[in-house]
Amino acid sequence: MRKDSRPQAVFSTAHFLVDLCCIFLETAYLLPGAGDRRAWLWCVLVYNFFAFACQLPAGIFGDRQNKPWILAGSGCFLIAAAYLMTAFCLKAGAWSLPGAGQFPVSSASGAAASLPLLLLISAAAGIGNSCFHVGGGIDLLRRSGGKAAIPGIFVSTGAFGVWLGPVLAAKQSARAFGLFSGCALMILTGAVLVGTHFLRKDRTEDNDSGLETGAARDAVPGSASAGRGAAISAAICLFIAVLFRSYAGTIMRYGWKKAFLAFLFTVGIVFGKMLGGIIGDRAGWRRTAVMSLAVSGLLFLTADRHPVCGIAAVFFFNMTMPLTLSALALLHPGREGMAFGLTTLALFLGTLPSLMESAGLLHSGGSSLLPAVCVVSLVLMAAGLKQEDRGEIL
Questions:
Q1: How far apart are the C-alpha atoms of 48 and 71, rounded to whole Å?
Q2: Which domains does the chain possess?
Q3: What is the DSSP annotation of 148-209?
Q4: Lowest mean pLDDT among 38-52, 105-119, 241-255
Q5: How many other CB atoms sit within 10 Å of the CB of residue 180?
Q6: Interacting residues of 204 by C-beta distance below 8 A, sequence separation 6+
Q7: What is the pLDDT of residues 43-63, one digit of tens each?
Q8: 186, 182, 76: which is closest to 132 by C-alpha?
Q9: Cα separation of 391 and 289, whole Å?
């Protein structure tokens, strides 16, 4: 039976829109409403916590609910609700937006919002983001047949949204129509996802989508015959590898990463994740992870001076993303949502050192640490995938 590629296209497109709308909401309306740096940091922390760390409980819930399209669509509706709350608050004068170049709000540029109000809206957007990602992740991991290509394409598109959100937020014309546009986009996207669930529920291939990959999971040595201790050790190595990759993403502060070069930097991230899964399925996950991290470590040595090296480095560095996600899913057969949530929990934890540095509580280091992070990640990935063979781990 020929696999239906439409779910992958729908979820990948929706991923771009969801991340775009969430980041635009934060950078165009919520963060500018913060009265001081402390409030700004709290908004970032709360959004990241609910958007990433909460994907673990959302994933466990999604595994039990077994309705990933509805879960993903519900997340979009919750993001739309966050837009509506923001629009209502601005209309009611709860806070006012600063002028161009004034960030965060100062006494001369407008009224700052109350912190609890900003945190409430940030939490709503973050929870919506969590629900969407987990819903899409569950469905596509089940359809992947134990391969990394499909999850890699799904996770890659969000980086474009994360890049485009602040770019649009800096434009007055985008902010003027952004609340209506963002809300409408999320309602439409949620309606498509929920509607697709009901339109497709009577089709045999969809009802059996989980069973289709179930046979593949049963064939994976790690899900049947490997010792529990080996599986736990592999999962821990992969979890810490994701944590280090997240931390690395927060210290890639290059002076040249502006304008068009910033876009090319994002392109490197997107295509690294996208091609990492495709190449890994063909060349082997462990071989791909080791080679990509070794090359990226060398390139990071001169990335601060040469943009080409930096863009190439981030491309190779991100090739491991779909491999860790798919490997953790294979280690937890039937619990794809939980596996997805484990990776995003690690992503959240990896951002904490830089947030603490922004708060003046810690010195987390700069981009000079990136080669060392690659070496540590290489060791962890090699250990986590050491018994991988033809895309089957442990």
A1: 19
A2: 6-207 (1.20.1250), 221-384 (1.20.1250.20)
A3: SHHHHHHHHTHHHHHHHHHHHHT-HHHHHHHHHHHHHHHHHHHHHHHHHHHHHTT-HHHHTH
A4: 105-119
A5: 11
A6: none
A7: 999 999 999 999 999 999 999
A8: 76
A9: 12
Q: Whole-angstrom Cα distance, residue 228 to residue 343? A: 20
Q: pLDDT tens digits, residue range 114-163?
A: 889 999 999 999 999 999 999 999 999 999 999 999 999 999 999 999 99
Structure tokens given for 155: 């996770």
The model's pTM is 0.89
Q: What's the pLDDT band for 75 if we cut at 50, 70, 90?
A: very high
* CA separation for the pair 318, 88 (Å, rounded): 39
Q: Tell me how far CA of residue 231 lies from CA of 106, 224, 387, in angstroms.
A: 52, 11, 11
Cα separation, 286 vs 16, whole angstroms: 28
Please tell me the predicted confidence (pLDDT) of residue 274. 96
The residue length of the chain stands at: 394
Task: Please state which of the ranges 8-22, 27-41, 141-155, 260-274 shows the lowest mean pLDDT.
Answer: 27-41
Q: Backbone phi, then psi, for 111, in 5-degree steps?
A: -90, 135
Instruction: Tell the burial category of 176 from Cβ atoms under 10 Å away from its Cβ (0-12, 13-18, 19+).
Output: exposed
CA 129 – CA 22 distance, rounded (Å): 7
- Rounded Cα distance between 77 and 83, Å, is 10
Select from 146, 45, 55, 49 the least CA-distant residue to 343: 55
